[in-house]
Amino acid sequence: MHLPFPSLRRLRAGLLAWAVLSAAPAAAQQGPTSTEAVFDRYAGHVVKLQVVEGGSAARATTGSGFFVTAAGHLVTNYHVVSQVVHDPGRYRAELVDAGGRARPVAVLAVDVVHDLAVLRADVRPRGHFALRAGSAVQGGRLYSLGHPSDLGLSIVEGTYNGRLRHTLYPKIHFTGSINPGMSGGPTIAADGTVVGVNVSTAGNQLSFLVPAERAAALVARATAPGYRPPASPLAEVGSQVRANQDVYLREMFAGKTKTVALGPYRVPTEPAPFFRCWGDARRGGELPYETVDHACSTDDYLFVAGGQESGVVAVSHQLISTRALNPSRFYALYTSVFAADNTPPGEEEHVTSWRCATRNLRNAASTPVRAVLCVRRYRKLGELYDAVLKVAVLGRRDTGLVSTLTLAGVSHENVGRVTGRYLENITWR
Description:
Blueprint: H1 8-30, H2 35-42, E1 46-53, E2 58-67, E3 73-76, H3 78-86, E4 91-96, E5 102-111, E6 116-121, E7 141-146, E8 154-163, E9 172-175, E10 186-188, E11 194-201, E12 206-211, H4 212-222, H5 233-249, E13 259-262, E14 265-268, E15 275-282, E16 290-298, E17 302-305, E18 308-310, E19 313-321, H6 327-339, E20 355-362, E21 368-377, E22 385-393, E23 399-410, H7 412-424, E24 427-428
Antiparallel strand pairs: 1-2, 1-4, 2-3, 3-6, 4-5, 5-6, 7-8, 7-10, 8-9, 9-12, 10-11, 11-12, 13-14, 14-24, 15-16, 16-19, 17-18, 19-23, 20-21, 21-22, 22-23
């Protein structure tokens, strides 16, 4: 059987298409922006960090860091080295090089608000990142470097998805898998520009970065001529936390606070753009009463130490009503809801026990309430407190409102100022 042979022109076209398709994967793999090339070029700029507990000589924490000067300055997260800051007599920080050797590092400066620290090691790195101005576009390819779960240096591809719009502290949304141990490592563009510092993850490739300009500002301060590290880094942490909470609490619940109607009451909601609110209700069924819940809280927080946070403000309201319970039974139910313990747990090493005071009072709108205020103090960060205000509105036989305000890491003055404003915003409709 005779098979027609293709024409010379068709043969040339076919060969050309085959050559292009065959070469394309190899070219993509060898290109300058491949993940392999990025890792090969910048892996030496990133190290593993570990915090060692002196008594046991065992690692208490591991994280990542990256060199930013030829003199051995590194950037990492404050939370990676927070134990050294809080208890330098018990903990020490080290970097572990590619050969597995541990080298001591010193904490030079911290920015607790943005969860950053600058360290200094007596080593000369093979290379370092230059923290220079750069830009990223939505969907742009980024590369995160770090040591996840002490498994060795790893690189993760992801995408830049902009800065969070409603947040207490500036953060970048990185769609990629930043895992524990990668905290403090860099996320970079293909040309080595540091876009952000790995800081946290919510899982499912939902991760967050501290913007690089915050790290650049801290490095500039720590490397400026004549700079001296604070005599007490812990006192510096306390000072930064107090200054920061004064800013975000200055106008909270003051002026025209946003409110929402719950039954016969009006209550405060979403006191600032960086709050998230949600609600639910339980009606019908076998219960002889109904409840409506409304809650708001800050979308993020400032890490201070294990079990200690600042920047947390939480508001919750529960409306309870009945058509089936007589006044005495409703009062017993209402009392039990109000008596429930809403105070957060805490480690005795860091905080004192709660102390509470209860009063019956009326606010400026003549709303009668029973209020209990509980406060505890930070042991190592004097002048900072956690507080929980719980309020039950009085005066009705079949309807009640229990409202709770929780504050973390604030001054004694702000406890009084903010709880007072909050009480004024609970009114009858």
